[in-house]
Specification:
Length: 237
Amino acid sequence: MQIGILQTGASPDALRADMGDYPDFFERLLADRGLTFRRFHVEAMEFPKDVHDCEGWLITGSRHGAYEDHPFIKPLEAFIRQAYAAQVPVVGICFGHQIIAQAMGGKVERYAGGWSVGPTDYDFNGEKITLNAWHRDQVTEKPAVAEVVATNEFCTNAALLYDDRMFTVQAHPEFRPEFVDGLMRTRGPGLVPDELMAQARARLADPLDDQTMAGRIAAFFLNHQNTRSSGAEKLRA
């Protein structure tokens, strides 16, 4: 199954040569799961011609806010709505999670509670899943069509399911511990409170459930090829 990666941002210049860029992270995360990939740098206004150009879409993270005025925001929101209407499956991660919610009628804000950084625990319908986080913005009002499938005390709308058509996650299953450490060194100082970064560093060696989430993402895409209901049921299980 071919998945189009819609790149909405780039990893820091200081880290990219050694660790790669956001599409690299997702191709690594989802390797050997029956998926192939095609890249579109939508931040640079490189958009697919049609929502059917690939069999599914994955929207990456970004340093931008979904509510900010950038040239790619409105076209991406339109593309999301078109994909939903056409029943082409879409996965969104962090910024992707947020821009999908905004496009579908929800609200994204710079959260008054501050940042979430490093290994973070989420309640995924009764199952604890630990994933790396790096965000200050979050979905504060979910769209009416979306169902909450993961949450925690800091982030109420931590993962959302839109029928069987879109699945979005606020956390970063694609971020490895060394990359989060790099973010804390290159982007964190002066932005993320020192105490919060210290807490995140103390948990960097914690086991992550990135492969569990990779399996859920792949199942969402692949099951969509077979029946439109099974992908949703897999996520609710």
